[in-house]
Amino acid sequence: MRDEPGGAGRVVCVHGAGGGGWEWGIWARGLAIAGFDVLAPDLKPAAGGLAATHLDDYRRQVAAWSRSARGVSLVGASLGGLLALAVARAVRARALVLVNPMPGAGLPMRAETSPAVIRWRSEGTLRSTQRAMPDADDAARLYAFRRWRDESGAVVDEARAGLVVDPPDCPVLVLASEHDLDVPVESSRALAATLGADFECIAGASHVGPLLGRSAPRTAERVAEWLHAHRRGGADLRA
User: I need a labelling partner for 161 at 20 to 30 A (CA). Which of 13, 108, 139, 235 fits?
Assistant: First the structure.
């Protein structure tokens, strides 16, 4: 079901807090094989640095990436899921895939207060990465440990407080990891119900497992199948 000659359209992938576009390596390969043009940039801090960065700074970046081509599909994980959800309607996304997304306003999410800069990179340990990725092999854990970055505390706290968003007007798939300790399955299920979205639970997966764990290749393949079957492909997007 490819509605563009020579390809299936662009997919913009939005990473989570403390991560980067590198998180999407397995998915980028799988989606490219399925015919998609994949864009997975790094979110950039504000001019004043991470301590001066807010959620709207990231949201504006995601909107700009999404307008780089007409008719993009958006894929976001964790914080990236909330950002993708926040811009989907405004950028007229063809489809939206949310992986363990931080929820919008009114849905359950644990409340915490973060320091100005969360030092996941500068103070993180390999052991903490191993604990966070029980469903990944040692090579994937080391790969991630070397690439985590520090994050803005304000961004994380604003996201946890909930963001009021315009509901997307495109097909939506919400994926939840069975063993997610950061975003409970119940939260993702409630978000899917609120959005009228398709919902799937990934057995045995951790919070980052769908991207970096053993389930990542099959999950990427499943998302490619879903995108081909469900993308909104109105004639206005090809005019």
Answer: 13
